[in-house]
């Protein structure tokens, strides 16, 4: 893997650039600040973009290692959040029945 023979970055460099640009946008800033209460950190996307470009230009082993570690961390961060609901195996038995009217309507 370190020799870089047939290795390609997990995403095209344009995808890293698009993610970095989105992260720096005003809409993303407002959404992230509203949801998390802090400013978004876009530095990782910039580092990934620079590593991807470095890989394409020089086939740098450090750039390859950096991209692999970053993607691995991103996948682990996404997997650590458990589902809120457990997925159903089948629909409820009474799914086809009409909904009950509210008692206040009567």
UniProtKB/TrEMBL annotation:
<dbReference type="Pfam" id="PF11326">
    <property type="entry name" value="PANTS-like"/>
</dbReference>
<dbReference type="InterPro" id="IPR021475">
    <property type="entry name" value="Pants/Emi1-like"/>
</dbReference>
<feature type="region of interest" description="Disordered">
    <location>
        <begin position="87"/>
        <end position="106"/>
    </location>
</feature>
<comment type="similarity">
    <text>Belongs to the UPF0545 family.</text>
</comment>
<protein>
    <recommendedName>
        <fullName>Synaptic plasticity regulator PANTS</fullName>
    </recommendedName>
</protein>
<dbReference type="GO" id="GO:0043083">
    <property type="term" value="C:synaptic cleft"/>
</dbReference>
């Amino acid at each position: 893997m370190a020799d870089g023979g047939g290795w390609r970055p997990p995403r095209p460099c344009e995808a890293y650039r698009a993610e970095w640009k989105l992260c720096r946008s005003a809409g993303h800033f407002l959404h992230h600040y509203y949801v998390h209460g802090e400013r978004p950190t876009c530095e990782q996307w910039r580092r990934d973009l620079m590593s991807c470009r470095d890989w394409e230009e020089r086939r740098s082993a450090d750039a390859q290692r950096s991209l692999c570690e970053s993607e691995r961390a991103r996948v682990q961060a996404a997997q650590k959040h458990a589902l809120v609901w457990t997925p159903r195996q089948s629909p409820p038995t009474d799914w086809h029945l009409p909904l009950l009217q509210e008692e206040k309507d009567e």
